[in-house]
Amino acid sequence: MNSPIQQTGPKRVAIAGLGVIGTRVARYIDEGAVEGIKLSAVASRDPQKAAQSVKDLRQAPPVCTVQELPNLADIIVDCTPASIFREVAETVISNGKILMPLSVAALLENMDFVDKARATGAQIIVPTGAILGLDAVRAMAVGEINRVVLETRKPPNGLAGAPHLVNNNISIENLSEAKLVFKGNAREAAKGFPANVNVAAALSLAGIGPDRTEVEVWADPTVDRNMQSITISSDSGDATMRMRNIPSVENPRTGRIVAQSVIATLKRHTDPLVAGS
After folding, report:
1. What are the Cα distances from residue 255, in Å, to 4, 239, 251?
2. How far is 208 from 236, CA to CA, in rounded Å?
3. Both ends of the chain: CA-CA distance in Å?
4. Distance of CA 19 to the CA centre of its chain
5. Measured distance CA(11)–CA(37) in Å, rounded
6. Does the pTM of the predicted model rise above 0.90?
7. 103-148 tens-digit pLDDT
8. Residue 99 near residue 124, CB atoms below 8 Å
9. Sign of the C-alpha dihedral, residues 127, 131, 135, 140?
10. What does the alpha-carbon distance between residue 139 and residue 118 come to, in Å, rounded to a whole number?
11. How far is CA 20 from the centre of its chain?
12. How far is it, in rounded angstroms, from Cα 163 to Cα 275?
């Protein structure tokens, strides 16, 4: 008779960065949204503010530094700004832990961590985020994908301050109709809109890479949601996918679904049944 699987306790999850998404993920975990997952620590540039953010949780986790996270967690969800992605990734991956980054655009600029993860036994898991169909894209990529095109439309305030707009003196104020503000590949889009087009980076990693994934970014005053449209042609079929995400009230650059995507990704580690590739 086979021996029963021994339970070794809940997986420990830590969160780096307690902005809108990080705080929401912390609350989901604390409320028991993921069976077999425990919120073991949080890290923030402002420890006092972080402590306030988690003090009302049923089981408030300790607040620590980024460097302390690998000693306190098996999985680290990185909700920090793209500017400190490398610091977080270095700490997590050098210690052989699982990194779940939300700044996927920053990951494109630091792909050397993939080789480092291979060497240390770490793993980088990118949540689907504010896009859909990445399971289909990954399946198509097993064969041959001919073309991937992503069109992103956002209310102008969701794009305000993006480096591409600032560097090219592109105004999106007082628009009366949609304006194409970028057309290029996913790698260029990630540089120009690091806080806005993580979807382009995730799509490119699931499919044919950042240099072949085509991206258009529109500032559109007629929409009140963040809209993503994907068109793919491959040797296994063609696909057209569209998603209309409700922006977060606190941060219009990101959608409400992003935090939920993190929870769905965590559930894959503990659920006895997982659907989707």
Report:
1. 42, 23, 8
2. 14
3. 31
4. 14
5. 5
6. no
7. 888 898 899 999 999 999 999 999 887 777 888 999 999 999 999 9
8. yes
9. negative
10. 22
11. 13
12. 38
CA distance linking residue 17 with residue 54, whole number of Å: 12
**What is the number of residues in the chain?**
277
Burial class of residue 70 (count of CB atoms within 10 Å of its CB; 0-12, 13-18, 19+): buried
- Token pair of 270 as six digits: 């503990």
∠ Cα 137 142 148 (to 5°): 40
pLDDT in tens, 1-32: 444 444 467 899 999 999 889 999 999 999 99
Q: Domains of the chain, with CATH numbers?
A: 11-129+258-267 (3.40.50.720), 134-253 (3.30.360.10)
Residue 162's Cβ-side half-sphere holds a number of Cα atoms within 13 Å equal to 31
What residue ranges of the chain have pLDDT lower than 50?
A: 1-7
